[in-house]
Write a structure and sequence with these properties.
34% of the residues lie in helices and 17% in strands. The strands form 4 sheets. Strands 1, 2, 3, 4, 5, 15, 16 and 17 form an 8-stranded mixed sheet that branches. A 4-stranded parallel sheet has the order 11-12-13-14. The chain is globular, with a radius of gyration of 21 Å.
């Protein structure tokens, strides 16, 4: 009974605030748009959207609404607002990630940035801190009581003593069990926070850290499932992916980057409905600043950066250090393997969701990374519409908020982006933001570019 109540409560948190039956609510009619609904089908030209309060009331060619504010958006494309299923927030400020940066103001500032880039729901992957829960900030954000993207949290993830994730990167709230006996109590503690899911780190960061023991993550997965929580794994190696899928992991939260995924593992992933979040932009960022990428001076990119980061990544010394780093060739190869694996999994029908790991380090720009992720998914073999579906409908499925978000349909929450050009023709057109609507209200005209 207690678990049923928690499920009911969470569904209420994730939904749009529904209008009271007899109350008056603003009505908005958007006319003559090209509509991408997030389900993967061909865009629908010359259609209309009727927004009543915070929700979509109707979609179609012939819609009339007395008293509606009418906007003719001829030439514009509307798509669902994006959902980032893997990111980090709060500890990033200027050119460093530090625990003292994790303040209400910094979190709200970054949630606003995500909304400016058309991302209205974000999943923080295991790096949140007590303040988020003790102050009610997470719940207020999910209820739409705060500006910016709605924040969904995995609470405090599970790592390794003196290992991953690196404590120096503001990871001091992470559970780090040294034995299986510690896991049940730590999972009970995490469950009290009502996280969306459980995050684990299973990686040695190129042999820099000890890796989580197999016995420990098996118990973490078992305990999480007993609490009706899914587990998302940070990983790198194919061998770990095989072991984790066998142990029951629900979400692979980064690409497999050392080897091409074999057919036997893909078959098991399909049978167990394992979700794949590639975070391709993370792997490109690991080496791309050794040169000047074509978007480095794009105002859309620069507007997403923390102060000082542009100067850092464009300095000759930084570029030279990256180029001469011992991991440079490994990082380039890892990105190439990651692209191959996304293409192979897409062809097999594995559910792929968009996440970028933005905010984990200063060079992973919050907001822009989500758009870059779409471009890289297309580079990996997805069509533009498939990439958009990964960032909308599939992301909503991962967060279990697809009852209200992720697609545009009558009764769904009115979260959408108005674009100046059609991204089905060129995925980079998602960057041409004309307006962002959250729960039926205009909240942004895109990032402030100079």
């Amino acid at each position: 009974m207690k678990n049923s109540f928690h499920i009911f409560l969470l569904l209420g948190l994730f939904a749009c605030q529904r209008p009271q039956r007899n109350a008056k609510h603003p009505v908005l009619l958007l006319k003559n748009v090209t509509l991408i609904d997030g389900n993967g089908g061909a865009p629908v030209a010359h259609t209309n959207l009727l927004i009543r309060g915070d929700s979509i009331a109707a979609i179609g060619e012939n819609i009339a609404a007395d008293g509606a504010t009418v906007l003719d958006l001829s030439g514009k494309t509307i798509m669902p607002a994006m959902i980032s299923a893997h990111m980090h927030i709060g500890t990033l400020k200027d050119t460093a990630n530090k625990g003292e940066n994790y303040t209400r103001d910094n979190i709200l500032r970054q949630l606003k940035k995500y909304a400016d880039y058309g991302v209205t729901n974000v999943q923080v992957m295991g790096t949140d801190r007590p303040m988020l829960f003790h102050t009610g900030l997470r719940d207020s954000s999910q209820n739409g009581l705060l500006p910016g993207a709605r924040l969904h949290s995995a609470g405090y993830g599970f790592g390794v003593p003196n290992g991953a994730p690196p404590i120096a990167m503001a990871m001091d709230s992470v559970f780090r069990p040294s034995s299986v006996d510690q896991v049940p109590a730590e999972m009970d503690s995490l469950t009290e926070l009502k996280p969306t899911l459980v995050k684990i780190w299973v990686d040695d960061f190129n042999k820099k850290f000890p890796k989580m023991d197999t016995a420990i993550y098996r118990v973490i997965i078992k305990e999480a499932h007993q609490h009706h929580l899914r587990v998302a794994a940070h990983l790198y190696y194919l061998a770990d992916a095989r072991s984790l899928v066998a142990a029951g992991v629900d979400i692979i939260a980064h690409s497999v980057r050392d080897s091409v995924i074999d057919d036997a593992l893909i078959k098991e992933m399909l049978a167990k409905h394992v979700v794949y979040i590639p975070t391709l932009s993370l792997d490109e960022y690991a080496y791309i600043y050794a040169r000047r990428p074509e978007w480095v001076n794009d105002p859309f990119f620069r507007a997403s950066l923390e102060p000082g980061v542009y100067e850092k990544i464009t300095s000759p010394q930084y570029q030279e250090n990256l180029k001469n780093a011992p991991d440079y060739e490994r990082n380039v190869h890892a990105f190439e393997i990651a692209l191959q694996n996304v293409g192979k999994l897409r062809a097999a029908g594995v559910l792929i969701a968009m996440g970028s790991d933005s905010g984990a380090t200063p060079v992973r720009a919050q907001g822009f990374s989500e758009h870059l992720e779409l471009e890289l998914m297309v580079q990996a073999g997805l069509t533009p519409l498939e990439a958009i579906t990964a960032a909308t409908r599939n992301g909503a499925k991962v967060l279990k908020i697809d009852n209200a978000f992720g697609t545009l349909a009558s009764g769904k929450c009115a979260d959408f982006i108005v674009l100046d050009a059609n991204p089905a023709k060129d995925i980079r057109n998602t960057r041409k933001i004309f307006a962002v609507y959250k729960a039926g209200k205009l909240v942004s005209n895109g990032p402030s570019v100079k």
